[in-house]
Design a protein that fits this description.
Length: about 350
């Protein structure tokens, strides 16, 4: 039996994608082999890669003048790759700190550049996003970086920062493909695949062409955007199975209304869950309403001594991966693209029943 999976990542994949992969697992394209067993240089896999890129460009509306890369190392690898590709030694870069992943990006960038944190939401315990008008960029900054969605804290920017002529860089790991976005507003978007794009092990980078080709000499080749672009993201052997699954997932998104379809689906799920948390007296969400994430919904029980019992009973009911991140505790339901309305409805029903029997 399939459970209701609320994992934060690696996250749920659409059942249609898993069943398609299962049907092709031992015989891909009539080759008598799995896609995992063929060369990444073969015409069959090159077609997988090319079709995946074309579909990603189509769905996101990536304009001309942008390079799309499929890399390894996760978003964490990009914390270093970005300053190594976009700055020279001694450069100044601006960062916004809205929680755990912002902090990690800032710590890594400090190894390569003078980091100015132009907004830090620590006074709210990282339950807010800064007001758009409060962001004042440092003169001469090489770029402005922000984390569009903090997976752990459940905080999401309700707007795209205006960086003027300064390249805007965004960690979109938990929001990419969840709704339409104007790619032209960004200098660089990066995202680990294991939320809305596919399985773990592959990372998408969408970078404006004028920002490519300036890597520091000491930059490892696998982190050098120009080197990877010149090799079609295959300077080394890529994660072929992950790339293939990413392509199948993009097809599923296309077949389910594209990004407007995902937006409608995700907005409804988030509204359903937040309405329940806000209405029921036994639960609370720590994030200011304007900054609540559509993708990651943390919540607290009125009596935290019941946390273990809550998780045990939820698991018995087929509601899995609801424990909050170890750094913050509580509960968290991640409701990415592949999580169905049925799963959210089942969680809401459980919340009501648990409150009835324990309040």
């Amino acid at each position: 039996m399939r459970v209701h999976n609320f994992a934060a990542g690696p996250a749920a994949l659409p059942i249609e994608v898993l069943e398609r992969a299962q049907s092709e697992l031992t015989d891909f394209n009539g080759l008598g082999m799995s896609v995992m067993e063929i060369s990444h240089r073969s015409k069959n896999f090159v077609a997988v890669a090319s079709e995946s890129e074309a579909l990603l460009r189509e769905l996101l509306g990536v304009p001309e003048g942008y390079t799309v890369l499929f890399l390894q190392g996760g978003a964490t690898g990009q914390f270093a790759a970005i300053p190594m590709n976009l700055t020279s030694p001694g450069a100044t870069v601006d960062y916004v700190n809205t929680g755990s992943w912002s902090k990690k990006a800032i710590a890594e960038a400090k190894k390569y550049a003078d980091v100015r944190v132009i907004a830090d939401e620590k006074d709210s315990n990282y339950s807010t996003t800064p007001a758009a008008e409060s962001l004042v960029l440092t003169e001469g900054a090489a770029y402005l970086h922000y984390t569009a969605n903090e997976t752990i804290g459940g905080v999401e920017f309700p707007y795209v920062p205006d960086s003027g002529d300064v390249p805007l860089v965004a960690d979109f790991s938990s929001t990419i493909m969840s709704r339409p976005v104007d790619v032209s507003a960004f200098g660089l978007i990066y995202a680990g695949a294991q939320k809305n794009l596919g399985p773990s092990g592959i990372t998408v980078v969408i970078v404006r062409d004028d920002l490519v080709g300036h890597a520091r000499p000491e930059t490892p080749s696998v982190l050098d955007y120009a080197a990877m672009a010149g090799a079609d993201s295959m300077l080394n052997t890529p994660p072929t199975f992950g790339w293939y699954l990413l392509g199948l997932n993009l097809q599923w998104i296309r077949d389910n209304g594209g990004l407007p379809g995902m937006e409608q689906r995700n907005e409804r799920k988030a509204r359903t869950l937040y309405d329940a948390i806000d209405t029921l007296d036994f639960y609370s969400n720590p994030v200011e309403p304007a900054s609540r994430s559509w993708m990651n919904v943390p919540f607290l029980l009125a009596d935290d001594s019941l946390d273990k019992e809550f998780l045990a009973q939820a698991g018995a009911a087929g509601l899995t991966n609801l424990s909050g991140h170890r750094s913050v505790g509580g509960m968290r339901a991640s409701i990415y693209n592949a999580t169905s309305q049925e799963s959210v409805d089942a969680l809401v029903s459980f919340l009501k029943e648990f409150e009835r029997t324990h309040a």
